Amino acid sequence: MTVTLPETDAVDDVIDDTEAADRAPAGLTASWPARAGAFAVDVFFGIGVVITCLLVAQSASISGLGWLRWTAIALAGVAFLAVALNRLLLPTITGWTLGRSLAGIAVVSRDGAPVGPWRLLLRDLAHLLDTAAVFVGWLWPLWDSRGRTFADLIVRTEVRRVEGERPDRRRLAGGVLVALAVVASVATLLGYFGVYRPELAVEQARQQLAVQGPKIVEQMLTYNLASADGDFSRARELVTDGYRPKLVDDQDHARKLGLADTEYWVVNSSVLTNTRDRAEMLMFMQGQRGEAPNLRLISATVQVKFERAGDHWKVADFSVLARPGGPK
């Protein structure tokens, strides 16, 4: 059996054609910096706005602010839609995305033909592989002969420089970037004033009450026999208008039973719940009443409600959970 080999010139022509197929047209492969800049304009800034808005929406949801949550979601939706339209639809209408028109590059098929929106969508989805491979796919154009990412290899596309005139969209790009910055700033301000600042105020109120609350209760309950009238008057200033009649009744009841030097101090306390202007605390108290040899030691667990009055807190309710007890 005789095998006939092709002539040497024919084999060389096949090899040359194969090598040429693996190379982009001379000088037309888009540079990596140009692609990165176009991607930043087309995707990075817009997705940054989307992420910012979604973070605000999540915080608003946790805080129970429905209006802020849906406002942030709406802003995120508008930003995402703008990115999608620019990335997928605009190239099929004008041949460019906003970022690529600034960089003077375009996505085309291997033969240089325009690429449709569905193929562009598939290409953007395939960019997930570029990211999943520890971002190696995004750097692949630096050494690929045709400047392709993994996504380009999958959908058989290339990014090439476009010679000749192209639309001047610098003003449009500047306007879009300014608009994105405004949207991100508005979302951030809404998050700050709608979520962060109120939560900060609640936390500051909690810290303030943790210090002031026990002292207020100690002053309200402590009095000396010699200065009882003044001590009772001072205690009435430490409570709200709504609770003051109850405190007056308790003071009158103490007078009928017979007054004696009484001192209380808070051993342990905890803020159960609080908002910026209202709170509840649980306190374990100890005290003493009278003088030796008739000195009586006291202990009690109480639950106290507070309301803010300016920069200070006042007692709004006082409940004894465990009755005062101790040696008699």
From TrEMBL:
Q: Which domain of life is it from?
A: Bacteria
- Alphabetical UniProt keywords: Cell membrane, Membrane, Transmembrane, Transmembrane helix
What residue stretches are annotated with the RDD domain?
A: 30-155
| Main location as per UniProt | membrane
InterPro entries hit by this protein = Pra-immunoreactive, RDD
Question: Would the keyword Cell membrane be found if you checked this record's keyword annotation?
Answer: yes
Which residue ranges does UniProt annotate as crossing the membrane? 36-56, 68-90, 172-195
Q: How does it sit in the membrane?
A: Multi-pass membrane protein
**Signal peptide bounds:** none
Keyword Membrane tagged: yes
Q: Where in the cell is it found?
A: Cell membrane
PANTHER family, alphabetically?
PROLINE-RICH ANTIGEN HOMOLOG (PTHR36115:SF6), PROLINE-RICH ANTIGEN HOMOLOG-RELATED (PTHR36115)
Protein name per UniProt:
RDD family protein
What is the originating organism of this protein? Mycolicibacterium sphagni
